[in-house]
Automatic annotation (TrEMBL):
Signal peptide: none annotated. This is TBC1 domain family member 12. InterPro entries: Rab-GAP-TBC_dom, Rab-GAP_TBC_sf, Rab_GAP_TBC_domain. GO terms for biological process: vesicle-mediated transport. GO terms for cellular component: cytoplasmic vesicle; vacuole. Residues 88-123 form a coiled coil. Residues 161-369 form the Rab-GAP TBC domain. Keywords: Coiled coil. SMART domains: TBC. It holds the Pfam family RabGAP-TBC. PANTHER family: RAB GTPASE-ACTIVATING PROTEIN 1-LIKE, TBC1 DOMAIN FAMILY MEMBER 12 ISOFORM X1. One of its GO terms (molecular function) is GTPase activator activity. The keyword Coiled coil applies.
């Protein structure tokens, strides 16, 4: 109760006792009050005998029609009193320069406003096209899928990009289900993956996980945990605690147990993530398993070197046909397709391109198959041909590994459309088949039985 003693003295007026403060105590109260700036000026004039002349009123306009946000208007200000005044010619010149700067700023602002309006008009037009296309897909195409999927009208509509609301459904139908996987089968392999995760020793370090035995492909279940956080990191939805983290984990784990001969390979997480964004969990798994069962994906994910070399050789045939200058430029630096194509094919461009553009590539890939993956690669090279011709080996490899983020679907697809997938009247499938045939004949000629 008596912790604090009562003050016996009355407080002095706040103005008189307002002390300054220093770090560890009070300084004595200031005797003199702060002076007004006018009083200080008068004392200075009395002490020095100089009279202060206020600057003449500025001739600057008060109401300027356009007031720049920067310091542009400072050019109209008069000089300080201690400097020589502007001459008439200089004042007129400054006025002219200011007017020019204001006019340029106005012009720039009008140009940006027109650009914004153009973007908005294109966006509205795109939304209208998507809405009208969605009606056609839902009411006409999907109910009669088998009869209409190969028609010219549907193929042209498909090329323009699928409406997001029907994209997953069309992908599922186009990829098919040759493996006859059911949602019940997915649950079985998911439960097996969960058992493996539980049984895996918690004391295992991440280094042990990275060097997991290749023979035991199911051991790659632990690699999934390391890779999920690297999947579309800018979206934050697949990172730990995100809404799709566990879902992606489940689909990849179930596939690893479903195909232990393939296991988990880096790049799969991007493919599974794109499917999860467009399909329900079980449907995403079914599409994922069937997609990776296609010859091209199976060759790359099982690291079948001989098959991969055939795909690279077929790609170079059409590369030389469509872009001869760039082809010779790459040849001069011994820059082979595997340096940039592997990453593109492994992730089906979902890692290399913006997500919305990658989904449009997927649209046509589901329509045309593996040929379109390599056609897209040639389209990218065509789009940046002029830039790549000026680069050396290191810069080309770096550029193609991390493509510019401002790449647009209109520019890319116009370049893809310009690529001719025909060489000496042979299409992609015929060129690839002939390469496979040559390979088999070469194997026969080099076989030990024939040599003996």
């Amino acid at each position: 109760r008596n912790f604090f003693t009562k003050r016996t003295k009355e407080l002095k007026p706040a103005v008189q006792s307002a002390p300054g403060w220093k770090l560890f105590g009070k300084v004595p109260p200031r005797e003199n009050l702060p002076k007004d700036s006018k009083i200080i000026q008068q004392e200075y004039e009395a002490r020095t005998g100089r009279m202060y002349k206020p600057p003449p009123p500025s001739g600057r306009r008060k109401n300027i029609e356009f007031e720049p946000l920067s310091t542009t208007a400072l050019i109209l200000e008069d000089r300080p009193a201690n400097l020589p005044a502007k001459s008439v010619e200089e004042a007129l010149r400054h006025r002219q320069e200011y007017d020019e700067m204001v006019a340029e700023a106005k012009k720039r602002e009008i140009k940006e406003a027109h650009k914004r309006k153009k973007i908005m008009r294109e966006r509205f037009k795109q939304e209208e096209n998507i809405a009208s296309a969605m009606v056609i897909w839902v009411n006409e195409i999907l109910p009669n899928w088998e009869g209409m999927r190969a028609t010219r009208r549907v193929r042209e509509l498909w090329w323009q990009g699928l409406p997001p609301s029907v994209r997953g459904k069309v992908w599922s139908l186009a990829v098919g289900n040759e493996l006859n996987i059911t949602p019940e089968l997915y649950e079985i392999f998911l439960s097996r993956a969960k058992e493996r995760w539980k049984s895996f020793s918690e004391t295992s370090s991440e280094n042990d996980i990275e060097v997991a035995s290749v023979a035991d492909r199911e051991a790659s279940l632990e690699l999934i945990k390391l890779d999920i956080s690297r999947t579309f990191p800018s979206l934050y939805i697949f990172q730990k605690g995100g809404p799709y983290h566990d879902l992606l984990h489940s689909v990849l784990g179930a596939y690893t147990c479903y195909r232990p001969d393939v296991g988990y390979v880096q790049g799969m997480s991007f493919i599974a993530a794109v499917l999860i964004l467009n399909l329900e969990e079980a449907d995403a798994f079914i599409a994922f398993a069937n997609l990776l069962n296609k010859p091209c994906q199976l060759a790359f994910f099982r690291v079948d070197h001989s098959m991969m070399l055939k795909y690279f050789a077929a790609f170079e045939v059409f590369f030389e046909e469509n872009l001869p200058k760039l082809f010779l430029h790459f040849k001069s630096y011994s820059l082979t397709p595997d340096i940039y194509l592997i990453d593109w094919i492994f992730t089906l461009y979902s890692k290399s391109l913006p997500l919305d553009l990658a989904c449009r590539v997927w649209d046509v890939f589901c329509r045309d198959g593996e040929e379109f993956l390599f056609r897209t690669g040639l389209g990218i090279l065509r789009l940046y041909e002029d830039i790549l011709l000026q680069m050396d080996f290191i810069h080309i490899a770096q550029f193609l590994t991390k493509l510019p983020e401002d790449i647009t679907s209109e520019k890319l697809f116009s370049c893809i459309a310009a690529i001719q997938m025909q060489n000496s009247n042979k299409k992609w499938a015929q060129v690839f088949a002939s390469l496979m045939k040559d390979n088999k004949e070469g194997d026969k000629n080099h076989s030990p039985a024939l040599k003996s």
